[in-house]
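Input/output pair, single chain:
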Amino acid sequence: MLSGRAISTVDRANASPVVVVNSALARLYWPNEAVVGQCLRVGADTAPCSTVIGVVSNTHRQDLVEEQPVPQLYRPLDQIRADESKSTVGFFGYTPAVRTSGDAAAMIEPLRQALQGVNPNVPYANVQTMRMLLGRQTRSWELGARVFSAFGALALLLASVGLFSVVAFILSQRVHEFGVRRALGTQSASLISLGIRRGMAPVVGGIGVGLALTLGLGRFVDPLLFRESSRDPLALSASVLVLFVAALVASVIPARQAAVVDPTIALRAE
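Output:
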């Protein structure tokens, strides 16, 4: 509820006609006026005046990614006229919404039996959880998220292994230099720091290039994302952090191995 009140048990058939509208309909008819208390004639100009008693937020009607909110109104079932019941309600039917506690799926069969017990003429009561209803539209996004996650994990693994191998190879070529530095009194911590800097320099540059490409080309990925942006700061920060940590680990291990080598062995190897 954004303003006013919701439909309640006092809004019976013999009470004054009332209606609740969503914010899209409120902006359409009363953009600069107070909405609660306005008169709305539903169906025809000769229909009785229904008083707007409340404004609610917009909801999606048919699609989870509706670009424009659809104007909607809500009325008490008791106040729907007979001619409307035969046309609109007769075509669409009634859809009760039940709030449950615990596992909603476990309530499907008890609810189906209860509905058919109330009206034996109903051949079959279709009872579904909200997760089942939404799952039809979110399934493609969920599949895409799993595929992207799998490829991302594989790419991260390959990048880490490749970085480890390259840094280890580069540092192996500098074992003589490290041996000379150690013989001259350089501490192992300084040598490890030097090795890490050598390994992280291209990583930092690669992350910068990757961020630039993401910000520039991310709009082509946006249609594949559900209510998310390819430029989401949290997602980008997490990605950079994971890559940075993976590169740091891949640089520390070979740098440490090269820094603790015996100076005499290193000099003799050259």
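The longest strand covers residues 49-56. The radius of gyration is 33 Å.
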